[in-house]
Amino acid sequence: MTGSGTAALRGEDALLRVEHLVVEFGRGPHRVRAVSDVSFDVMAGETLGLVGESGCGKSTTGRALSQVVPPDSGSVRFDGVELTELSGRALRQARTKVQMVFQDPISSLNPRRRILEAVAEPLAMWRVGSKAERRQRAEQMLEAVGLDPGVVGRRRPTEFSGGQCQRISIARALMLEPKLLVCDEPVSSLDVSVQAQILNLLDDLKRSHGLTMVFIAHDLAVVKNVSDRVAVMYLGKLCEVSSPDDLYRSPAHPYSEALLASIPQVDPASGHRSPALSGELPSPTDPPSGCRFRTRCPRAEERCAVEEPELRPVGVQHYVACHFPLARPAAPAET
Amino acid sequence: MVFWVCAAWVGAMVLLAVVASALPLKGPNFQDYSSVNVGPSLHHLLGTDDLGRDLLSRVLYGSRVSLVIGFASIALGLVVGGTMGLVAGYRGGVADSVLNAGSFVLLAFPPLLAIMVVEAFWGRNLWKLTLIFAVVAAPQLFRVIRATTLACAQRDYVVAARSMGATTRRILLRELLPNVAPAAASFALIGVAVAIVIEGSLAFLGLSISLPTASLGNIVNSGVQNGNLQANPFIALWPSLYIFLLLTALNLMGDRLRSRYDVREVNV
Amino acid sequence: MSPLDPRRFRRAHGPEFPPSESLEGPLLEVTDLHTRFRSGAGWVRAVEGVTFTVGRGRALGIVGESGSGKTVLTRSIMGLLPTTGVERSGTVCLSGHDLTAMAPSVLRHLWGTEMAIIFQDPGTALNPVVRVGRQVTESLRKRLGLDRSEAHQTALALLTSVGIAAPEERMRSYPHELSGGMRQRVMIAIALACGPRLLLADEPTTGLDVTVQAQILDLLAAAQLQRSMALVLVTHDLGVVADRTDEIAVMYAGRIVEQAATADLFAHTRMPYTEALMRSIPQLADPSHTRLRAIPGRPPDLSTVEPGCRFAPRCPYVQDRCRAQVPPLRTAGPGHRFACWYPVSSPEGEEALARNVAAGVPAAVAFTGAPERRP
Q1: Do B264 and A122 touch (CB under 8 A)?
Q2: Measured in Å, how far apart are chain B's first and last C-alpha atoms?
Q3: Could you say which residues from 6 to 45 on chain A have a Cβ atom under 8 Å away from some Cβ of chain B?
Q4: C206 exposed, middle or buried (CB, 10 Å; 0-12, 13-18, 19+)?
């Protein structure tokens, strides 16, 4: 099976370079390729937004980056080191530079451990500094995420709200001074009014700690807000890679367009939308041949069933994997 | 609150059993023919049986057998079965499948019969019985702990620990064990109660520790034979009451423990 | 006559409700509804004095976050509350009949036939050990007295009408064999089976993919149109209600804080909470890296009672009066009610905001996008 291709890769100096990543689950007839030959890169200081719906493989991709889910094949090159070749202690050490923030903030904290301990845990694990120093750094980090260590330190996660737990998780993730932060749907299970707080917080921390981020979400509006670059996934493959503004103004892949059209607009005066995407997601154990999106694509033709499209450029830093991409508007669209 | 009352009661029972020999009581087998079938009185707080033996003394010494077999066998089963459950639940793979299948095989044997058969071949003293009980209990504890571990291992904090570079050992001890322990403890406490009942039943049938060593079950047994039930119901009453209170306390403890720790997770 | 035509349905038991054609007045009238639960810490006041009406065939959106009481509200209206530890007061009238005064045995007959509810998580709302087909036909047979083959045919037609392809196969499947979107469709089919006049949809699309969400919402809109059914759509997502409802009510801490016709709510927002909510949501039309105007603090804890307006701790316009007195619902225009002492776009509101910004109140500062000071 050919992959989405490596056209979107920019250069050897990227902080994270993923090539031909494949992750499979299950055995026999239930074997699923959650991630099918995906290649992308992230430059230092950039935020890559990985967006797609359920079953597209974005979460699995995120976990494969720090090798928490070991890839079946492909390469993950982080800061010049090939992570897939590491094992044992070397892998565990390399992992410290790639930290994750999860979707369910309360489940990402050990319910039996007090907050201050939980935040200091990464340092304790690697025996960094003395106990007092670890405690102090944990307190500083809690303050940096907007919590008062005196108030929250001695309590347990169950006493806190989702938003607060997410702040604590973020604090913990930053303790080992990672270079790459992988956020897997960090705001999806939070209240609307709290989401903005966490997004702002991530933005602030990214700048103050010089982080590079991979932001995984299903909400295109959120992804657009935080990312420098967006990659759209469908059923384990990359459909489109571009800058967020470009993606919104002129989506090239029919799936991207359908995603944009499906998003409910808050302003009721924004006008009539094209009808929603029809059909159901195909079974991941038996994906359609050729282009996986063809069963729901309004533009599908014979070629789509035979030949799988690879990523190719359609604009400045704008790549799409489609045989019949949408045309770009002739004049720059008003936003 | 209830939990602590029951724990205090169990603790008191254990303490009494331990210091029984230091107490100013006649020995459990000391037969005083001048005070046969005496009711509760100052000299004999619980009365005496048909051979003039002090019932309080017999009950306390008898409780030693029940308590040792109950607690020691479960503790042993917990250490062996529990550790295997923890590792199997987290690691999965071939080892897990094998252990799982093995536990099913062991669980297929009806416990009471299995114990009777083994002790018929092997003989019975306190330690052999404890070992047999432990072997019967281990697969159950294995299954409970494995199931709890499986549930906990899916949670994000375990993934988080791995991504921070934790070794498997650290994850098992620091992340999983504290979360599995409450469920394991509550199940174990109820397991102790069950073990005590089984031992008591075996003793009642005369298949536990051989006479004349007192065991709660065989005190009850002697209390219903030879017309003792009509002559001196206290012989059968005190050990039965003791077992009843002990079991109630253990069950309540196990139940309270479970509800305290389960509910926290569910509410969240 | 189509198998789904409401005129085919004969009520098997229960009170006779006047047919919709002869209905005068609103379909649903909720008056001063209060619901509270007993919890370890005292009373949790989930619904505090909610009053609204829904006309026949109209769609009302109820928007709120966690702690707003919106889920308890839908269950209060249906009467689906636990029997102990709950107190409910106020009235709920459906077609003029007071549901709160009805005995549970009588009320039960109305569920499904006059009013139906669909829940947030279709995975847990469907019985996992019963085949889908039986779950759909169950209510048809019990409520409407249809026999087995009639119920089967009707169920097939229902599943097709909610957009499920190959309905025969799906009838024989178990819920876990279906995707989230399909399960939600099945739930909708079950809810619509007996032709209710009112459908309460409690977060029907939360947790579903956005493309599936659009399909489900379209489906609800179509069903509403075909059956002249009233819809109460409860959600935390303002976008979902923005163009699928006639009216929107915004809930906060168990109260309705603003209610208006949809277009009016967005064009002439009065309640600071509504305004702040709209501003804090990332918009697709904004360029990337737009700084979001976050609302500081957290949604309120319903087990505590605070004097004054519950939004005061987070409000950019807050003044002393807000902390002392609960603002009553006032009218701003036809069909537009709000509860605020210093509403948006009013002279006293603007003044209040300016004063707060000058004083450095965190909510006001965050709201106007001025550089934040550390709390």
Answers
A1: no
A2: 23
A3: none
A4: middle
Q: What is the reported pTM?
A: 0.83
Q: Do chains B and A touch (3 or more CB pairs under 8 A)?
A: yes
Q: Which residues are CB-contacts of C298 (< 8 A; sequence separation ≥ 6)?
A: A161, A163, A164, A191, A194
CATH number for the domain spanning A79: value is 3.40.50.300
- Whether residue A60 lies within 8 A of chain B, CB to CB, comes out as no
Q: Which domain holds residue A311?
A: 1-97+227-264+273-324
| Three-class secondary structure of residue C38 per DSSP | strand
Does ipTM surpass 0.90 in this model?
A: no
pLDDT class for B207, splitting at 50, 70, 90?
confident
Q: Is residue B253 part of a domain?
A: yes
pLDDT-derived band at A333 (thresholds 50, 70, 90) equals: very low
- Residue among C97, C40, C37, C39 nearest C72 (CA): C37
pLDDT (0 to 100) of residue C16: 56
**pLDDT, tens only, A273-299:** 555 677 777 877 788 888 888 888 888
Residue A11's CB: how many other CB atoms inside 10 A? 8
Q: Residue A153 and residue A145: Cα distance in Å, rounded? A: 13
Range of the domain at B218: 48-267
> Distance (Å, rounded) from C-alpha A108 to C-alpha B161?
9
Three-class DSSP category at C17: coil
Cβ-contact A213, C273 below 8 angstroms: no
Q: What confidence tens digit (pLDDT) does each residue in C18-39 have? A: 554 445 678 899 999 999 988 8
pLDDT for position B257: 84
Structure tokens at C353: 């905001």
CATH of the domain at B53: 1.10.3720.10
**Domain C6-16+26-245, classified CATH 3.40.50.300, yes or no:** yes
Domain boundaries, chain C: 6-16+26-245, 270-368
